[in-house]
Amino acid sequence: MAKKETVHDRVFEIYDLKKDKGKHGKIRKFIARCLKAEFPEKNWGSLPKDWDALSDLDKARFLNIVIKDKMLEKYVDSGKRKRIDANIDKYLNDTMYQADIEIKQYNENILNIHKKHYEESDSHSDKKIAYDQFRQDLSAINKLISMPSYDEWIERNKIKPFSIYDYCMDDLHEMHRKMETEPKSATQSEINDKILKTIMRILSTEFNYEIDVSRIKEAISYTKDFHKEDFEDLLIEYNPDLPLNKDEQNDIIESNKKYMTYSKMLRDLDFYK
């Protein structure tokens, strides 16, 4: 029987390392520390068994994202770093693992939407900690939304405990109210259109950069047409408990990955060449 590939085998393969005795021992200890920190719910009494129990997504994220910076900095020869870094980025993009990771993070953020951070019986210091967590969780959902001050957060919760979902809905209603009452003038989208066309002309004529407008249109159209309920989980792997066959679920999973890929491109403005 062929020997099963271990986490160490994968690390040495991805980072193009030779298994010399001195470096090998240090890297094994480093991997063990990182695994315990990243997956504290496991006891790691049997590393091969616990590693095999991880999902393919968690394995790929650990090997190519979690340990990457430290591996390149401490254990990879400087002459190899740029090549290995590029190989990892290409692997993540080609396999759409980046989309998987985006979906997983999105689903984890959604879990906090209806969470009640405030507890009246908490001490002042515990309420401060809860408020900081509220700010962090709210920012993960919407970085542009205005944050309530600590005193505002306390006063609002004293009236009725509210969640991030409640706060987002209130902010949305207030934005719609302002839009209905503000006088009509040149819209920001009209102004932005002229600014962007001016910038595109300068980039093309002066610096020979081209903006891929068709790709932008494709990404925006796909994300706008993509149907999902507010704050719902996105399917990321086959679930035998759902009333859909494997092919139907695979179609949904691929659609979710494509949505996350385009969403990331729009967020990172990755449309020039």
Question: What is this structure, in a nutshell?
Answer:
This protein is an all-alpha fold and 273 residues long.
Helix content: 55-70%
Radius of gyration (CA) equals 24 Å
Shape: globular
- Assembly form of the protein: single chain
In N-to-C order, the SSE pattern is HHHHHHHHHHHHH
Main sheet overview:
none
Please, could you describe this protein's structure?
The protein is mainly α. The chain has a domain at 7-95. It contains 13 helices and no strands. The chain has helices at residues 7-14, 21-38, 47-53, 56-66, 68-74, 78-94, 97-110, 124-141, 150-159, 164-181, 188-207, 213-225, 246-268. Helix 7 (97-110) packs across helix 13 (246-268) and helix 12 (213-225) packs across helix 13 (246-268). The radius of gyration is 24 Å and the shape is globular. The protein starts with 6 loop residues before the first helix and ends in a 5-residue tail after the last helix.
Question: What order do the helices and strands come in, and which of them pair?
Answer:
Layout: H1 7-14, H2 21-38, H3 47-53, H4 56-66, H5 68-74, H6 78-94, H7 97-110, H8 124-141, H9 150-159, H10 164-181, H11 188-207, H12 213-225, H13 246-268
Helix pairs in contact: 7-13, 12-13
